[in-house]
Amino acid sequence: MHQFVKPGYRRAAGWLQCLSVMLVFLFLSISCKPVNSVNEYKYTTIEGDPLNTRIYRLDNGLTVYMSPNGNEPRIYTSIAVRAGSKNDPAETTGLAHYLEHMLFKGTDSIGSLDYEREKVELQKIIDLYEAYRSTDDPDKRADIYRQIDSVSNIAAQYTIPNEYDKLLNSIGARGTNAYTWVEQTVYINDIPANQLERWLTIEAERFRKPVMRLFHTELETVYEEKNMTLDSDSRKIWESLFKGLFRKHTYGTQTTIGEAEHLKNPSIRNVIDYYHTWYVPNNMAICLAGDFDPDETIRMIDKKFSVLEPKEVPEFVPPVEEPIEKPVEAHVYGPESEELVIGFRFKGAQSSDADYLALIDKILYNQTAGLIDLNLNQKQSVLEAASMAIPMKDYSTHILNAKPREGQTLDDVRSLLLEQIELVRNGEFPEWLLDAVINDLKIEELKTWESNRGRAEGYVDAFILGLDWHDVADRIERLSKITRDDIAAFARDHYVDNYVAVYKHHGKDKESPKIAKPPITPLTVNRNRSSLFAKRVLSIQPERIEPEFIDFDRDIRHHQVTDDISLYSVDNGENDLFSLYYVFDIGTNHSRKLDTALDYLTYLGTPKHNPAEFNQALYRIGASFSVFTADDHLYIKLSGLQEHFSDAVSLLEDLLVNAQPDHEALEKLKQGILKERADDKLSKRKILFQAMGSYAKYGPLSPFTNVMSNGELREVTPKELLGEVENLMRYKHRVLYYGPSEPQDLATELRGLDHMQSALLPTPQETVFEEIAPEENRVYVVDYDMTQAELLMLSRDGGYNPSEVPLITLFNDYYGGGMSSVVFQELREAKALAYSVFSVYRLPKDKDEHNYIFTYIGTQADKLPEALNGIGELMTTLPESPELFESAKKGIREKIRTERIRREKILFTREEARKLGIDHDIRRDIYNKVDDFSFADIEQFHHERFRDRQGIMMVLGSRRNLDMDTLKSYGKVEVLTLEEIFGY
pLDDT band at residue 567, thresholds of 50, 70 and 90? Predict the structure, then answer.
């Protein structure tokens, strides 16, 4: 599956995307004032705030941010703690991250069957770890660890693993998770609105007295996570960059996950001390956005969380970094493709530097018409150039990155990136671009505020970074006052030879300090038990919310644009933004040249505009377009402000109908594709999840390998590719629209477009790829230089049957689809055999495709035999847990009751149903039938579908570390080359 967008689209490298810290801001000129609510809880509000924000500070210092939003009966919740890796003691790094893991283990009430007995054993474990970390003798350490393992099994008798996750699943929570970074640890949930009291009860108890149970298996999970980072080139880039930027500050002197040596010598006492130091109410915030009554909610929060007692929080005094006088170079090595990353250091998020960074970042890279967009991406001078500003509390960074083209050095890339900075220093960018950037920021905010998640994350950022909400609200107005001359002057002062350049080379890294697996005796999992706390919480009966299902005829308006083109629309009553889609039932299975043709289109101009002018014209009116292509369908998307709809559609139509060939652009595109293909063979995720996954499903001939050969690519001409675009627009398609315009007016306007003036052709014949059904088990291995091993297991079953969907939904939730599932509990919680593992019965997206048993395991290579044995046992025998089974059923129903499909998702839900041959919202079937199933039903499903199945196992890892004899016991082993799985 490929996605093409305008050349300026933010296609930052994965490491940069993962580390993005989003700050969202209001754009109104408004005032802030304290108000007394009717119940005497004082709060701060902001006049004219579209979020209706209320900010409370309770007597114990707990901060509460609220944004009531009744669009759906759900609430997005974040509990933020101002404690991250920068607060870790230098001698025991990784504490903040490890404590995050432990906050899922419960308390003396959650997850415990008999805490009085359990705590005796837990104290023994705490003492043993202190002895372990103070002992150097390997034999003595091994003996102490055996004692830890033994006592841990005794303590586990009184433990209910994952009870917190089961509770949240039972009340219909989604996205239960947490994250730790440099100055924060944040715990998130998306809950049904009627479950607010239950959730508050659970969370108040969770933070009251977390218990460090199941420590040694969870520590092994963190070991796994650490070993994963050792395989990550992006981690090496990030750590090297921050080490160069921050010589004194803990941003650069230590890492979030911690040093390997510190993880090998853990201290439970230190983790407990960290909790008592930082997890106090005056250092925490609860951020809520969704459907709730704020007056009633603040009373409940105060009642539940008043048990937390405030205390003085240690002041973190950031060290003053010395100026960077000259460029600092660092070189890292790894198996993935080359890349150059440049970072500049600035003052923190509360300084005026943050405002300038926001504007300069967009002037350089705004996805359409920035300097990097036009000069590097549009001209194909490099591969995947990007820019990102990252505000942090004490310091901020501005990062630029790009990958080299074939024959280009990393020094060449560095020079090209710095040239764009020089243009800013000289003020060599148009005045209108600054106005367009402000407009772009406003549009981004409108999109962010549409979701409860976006609102809550905005509050988290403000709290963690110490930003007053009034200052946040005033940001756009401040930015609007900054001139081009101001920006140039700032850039001349702050962007000099004061940067760090990280050269990421393709090559073998020095040996990383891999953490070896310790001997762990599998724990007894009390999955059939519940604590008294859980029983009490679940006995609370909240007011019932009735589900709402989509009626495609009622919720989607249908008009004919022409005899061949239908318009399906959903009204946007929230803001003035629109999204328009041309949807074709044509994809790369119909033409191997199509994705290249659409990619080529994004580098072309028209008789009215050259390529740069076209991008600038789009950006000036706040519009953007992108193209998504798949095997059997594609869509062209145009979005922006409705007031500029006509201009935006005219620009897009001109490009689709009148694109002008450019031989030089095509030659650069060919070279770029060839380089990207070579880089793809170095990407672990690309190899495993796309190339290997496709090979397991189809064999050597598949939709994934159905591309032009390198030779064919070199020979293709502009005429051929533009012919593909011209032919595409002659085929029947449909139009999807989400926006404020009336559909009949929209249909009239679209009817006048050039490509709609003639009769359209029916969808052409596509190449059909047969899914293979192996007659014997096969094991395919791809050799890759990595510490861990990752594998996919696929077994083909029958075709899509809508009547089976309710049972399959329940089975997946129970068996292997989440953190409370039996697969996760057995392999991660009880046996510590994998950091990431799941196993589901996967349904297809097309009615003509097959269902699959799909299993993924990511683990250390030396654990692979045990992990395979563990998953094999679960595929043979389904463990029974009445508690977990009821939790799964309740969770499914609660999620459906409060899920509201809105906006564009209504249109795409219809598209998904159409491909599966159904004419209704399948959630109705799941809701109506899930309560009728017994455990015997999913046990029978497991027996019929999982036992004694032939399948294909795909293993990615270093052959020197893999136990090939073990793999042979699972089937005939064949080592595949990258050429075989990629097809070129």
Answer: very high
